[in-house]
Amino acid sequence: MSEAETPSGLDPRVGFAHVVGSSPGDGPVLRNALSPHELVTCRADADHRNMYHMFARGGLARRPDAPCFGSRLRPDGSVGPFEWQTYAQVSARIDAVAAALWKLQLVPTAAQGLRFLGLYCKNSPEWMLAAEACYKTGVVVVPMYDTLGAEVVSYIQGQTQMASVVCSAAELPQLVKRCPFRHVIAYGEVSHALRAQCAHAGFQLHLLAEIEEKGRASRSLLDQLQEPSTDDIALLCYTSGTTGDPKGAMLSHGNVISATGNVSFPYAPGKFLISEDVQEVHLSYLPLAHIFETVVMNLMLSLGGAVGFYQGDTLKIIDDLAALRPTVFVSVPRLYNRIYDKVVGGAKEKGAIAAALFSRALATKLANFDADGTLTHALWDKLVFGKVAAQLGLDRCHTMITGSAPLSDAVKDFMRVAFNVNMVEGYGMTESAAAGTLCNPLDLTKGHVGAPVVSIEIKLQDVPEMNYVSAGVPPRGEICMRGPSVFKGYFMLDDKTAETIDKEGWLHTGDIGEWTAWGTLKVIDRKKNIFKLAQGEYVAAEKIEGVVMRVPLVAQCFVYGDSLQSYLVGVVVPEPEEALKWAAAKGVAAPSVAALLAQPSHAAALASDIQAQMAAACKAAKLQGFEVVKKVCLEAEAWSVENNLLTPTFKLKRNEAKKKYIDQIDAMYAQGLPPTSRL
To answer: Beta partners for 463?
Structure first.
């Protein structure tokens, strides 16, 4: 990991890692080569003491009359062209909302002496108005996915004791059924019938437009309020809670400010991913309840970018892209895969000549890129890829960023050459304010997630029970991160905080990493039996297995999810007695499960019925759609200690099971799903 070991032709000072220390059992500690002596706090200074300052002293100061927030969604639910509010207009609305929250006592002191405001809606200008009002006045934002059920919402409210929540008219019916809040601030068109239901639901309904009007008359109140500092809590981001109740990650203003600075830091002298010299345009569709989009949003506002909000339907993202034509596109592998499938599939559907032309164009551009990093091609960009980019609204895009889950090298390179963009992959988590590693666009090597960002240092801690050691070649171990982006702990859960952050300040991610020779990181495994699917959803395999093994036809089950795929597959050992009953009911003669599975047509029918029963059990257990196993293969031999698939305490050896069934797993994913089964 010295300068001599960086990839050929790449300046070793730009975007790679240097060793800055080591400790027994943990191997080397690495930092970005741009900050070898101290971690860069990135804008957490006098000009950016809190997240509101990023808006006020960034975009508002630079471009007061430029577009700030745009939306296609009209109050009545119809969709039109993007309509924009300027930075100055947004600033005035933020002040009005902030004043009203305090004047109307909608954010009283709650648990731990903090003031909270819940946000329970899709991305919208209204979400950001409320959030910025909180950032300005020291109120802690509690973002909640609009898909959360009543039980989780009630749990979060109970832990925080927050009095108020902001939602759109679309979420009101859910709150009418079971609302734990005293005040609900709604926007959009609320019918008279729905208002009447709210009046009888035990909470007070406020319309956002009305509280803005009241706030405008009380803006002088803001002069009496103390602005939050860098160390004050800005967000309480609740994790998915796949292994129990959700945990509220406490993120300070400084955490998010330092994380945003990582993206605005140069990846080479004078070169930036996102510029402040021209106005960048960003489509906000990734949930603002997730820290990834929150960091991107604050970065765009600090640079004076224009943010267009999607219409609220992820299936219509491509339509929103065409209407907005962003210059920066931030997404997750699931959508990049959709774009790839749409473009490649569309070329094939046009016929043999068009398909051959597309294949030749793509092969030529990929070869040029692999050779020297060239993205453009005078002929093929004009004949093929320029038209594709214009159709998708990506003709102005110069940078794409991906995170949350791994993106295949094939799709990553396709996006680069098809749209002539910097394609940058990163790695992080909620607890690090999405900061961790980031690929350098100048680096053409594959299979990694980049070097540590400038606000984070990383080490790999030994995991001997999984044979991962930092002293090995290559170094491997649990990824641990430390720096100003790392969160303050879990709200009111000191024991969980102690399990996650050690006494030296290292955040233990639970992911297994491997260092490359030039100081970039590969994520190769998971220490715990929790993994991410391609869309970024966390899945707890053992929880799902506990549900499906109650199905009569299932004796044993191994649930598996590839992080490059969007769905789960499973290996099932059928319950012998029930399987033979199933065979008899079908008129199939089979003396044993092995004999039954030896008949391909009967094995396929049994697998289909088992999968259907498992899906029904998951639905009855109220699991999410992504937690349902979509395909299964069957195994006749029961797992045991003797065949090395169970521990002496009869727990499944997941690594051994993966090794044994990897061919079947690969085959199930290769077959794919029928359209009716896709997520």
So the answer is: 468
